[in-house]
Amino acid sequence: MSVKQISVFLENKPGTLLEMTGVLAEKKVDMRALSLAETSEFGIARLIVDDVYAAATVLKENGFVHNITSVLCVCIPDEPGGLNKVLQLLSAAGVNVEYMYAFLGGKTVDHAYMIFRVQDRKAAAAALRSKGIRVVDQEEIAQL
Amino acid sequence: MERYYQPEIECASQEQIKAWQDERLVKQVKHVWDNVPYYRKKMEEKGVTPDDIKGRDDLHKLPFITKTDLRDAYPYGLMGKPLKDCVRIHSTSGTTGKRVVVFYTQHDIDLWEDCCARAITAAGGTDEDVCQVAYGFGLFTGGAGLNGGSHKVGCLTIPISSGNTDRQIGFIKDLSTTILCCTPSYAAYLGESMKEMGMTPDQIPLKAGIFGAEAWSEEMRQDIQNTLGIKAYDIYGLTELSGPGVAFECSEQNGMHINEDHFIAEIIDPDTGEVLPEGEKGELVFTAITKEAFPMLRYRTKDICMLSREKCSCGRTHVKMCKPMGRSDDMLIIRGVNVFPSQIETVLLNHGYPANYQIIVDRVNHTDTLDVHVEMTPEMFTDNLGEVSRRQKELVDGLRSMLGLTAKVTLVAPKSIVRSEGKAVRIIDKRKI
Question: How do beta strands B408-412 and B367-375 pair?
Fold first, then answer.
């Protein structure tokens, strides 16, 4: 059970991010989450979208280098200590987090979503589930 | 008053120069035929034997030696003497990463240093002078050549090598250096640094500079001369032929005298290989007629140039070459280092990048910069920033070990490198030389 993340290579110069959001908008791709990592010369945009296939296709057609990785999407109670509890469980299971970012579930839900990039996704998911933490899949993301 | 290191040679009559060249060429061709099977084979393929070469006028009958030959014959294939007779090597980069290694006997070094001594003397050097050799020492020929020449002239020689600007300026001030030998860009940089320190030209003890190993313009000469308060002289050479001192400028500062007692120069059409009349523009070809260990016959320099036998006011009679006007291949000279785009391509492919690249050369604050733009590919891309950066750094390291200089690597979007008529523009040289 995982969520597909699209990572896009972006040159670090004015207009490149706009160009990317432009082609996604044209294809009516709905972004759930966006995280940017950058060096002084280039950046990587990481996206969680409703329709992975449509997004990947339009990016490819427009010459954006990208790849798709499976990441863990975890529901985190929207309350103090929510993230702390999840990290404690991951730490106890010996899971190293390469990077992570969060987004809100919407007005009607009482939890946030956290995207985790980890080496051993299965072990991480099992450790969380055993303590009642919900890990969601692409379907749920698409329906948000 | 014009000074000469070897006046009887440097001011010899045209007849005398031709007599030397005829005699030495005949001898050299025999030497090569007997000792260099690689070149003998080339002669046989062309149907030429030593008997066909009676003098300079028969030179055109001989086959050329190119960079490709140097690569194919690496490392010993073009040697004219057994290794036990050789005392040193110098080395330069080749077209595809394989180095060119050149061998020297003691006699070769002696004649090479004579050539450098002529250049230093032509720049006004005597045994009263302090000569600071700020060319790199090591496999590069610049440091060793001028160092030997400076000894021959009797200058107090400072073998400081390149770099460390503070120390360079310290020696110039403390030991009252009068002659500076380095690349023109480094001379300009030293000049700027001294200016920033508040030194005016009359406070700088230097009187002359011998600057080579890279292309420089007349404007750059004026600039260096004004900042340092010196006369700046050009010097030309190639490792394949010995090193600096193949040709040098005199007081006229208008073209470089080729040391014709050691080298015969020809200008050819780079496309057909045909010899062009003196005075026409074409590719410069040299035949080394006195070298023992690495006797180059008709070596194609790929430098586009012109020769002139007009009488020179300095009194020297040897033919003059103009500053090279370009290349007939795509070699770049960056910070004095020869760089072929094919070398960069080799490194990119070895690191898993496609051959979609662009080389951008510029000159910032008188120093050459090399920026290699590489198009990102799906294969080379990951979602991990550290991983992409690590691959980028590996590429920088790979380029450094191949080229011997640090390049900046910029990863760019796919298809962002301009293509004209389907063919990529590989080199953008923004330097105004």
Answer: parallel
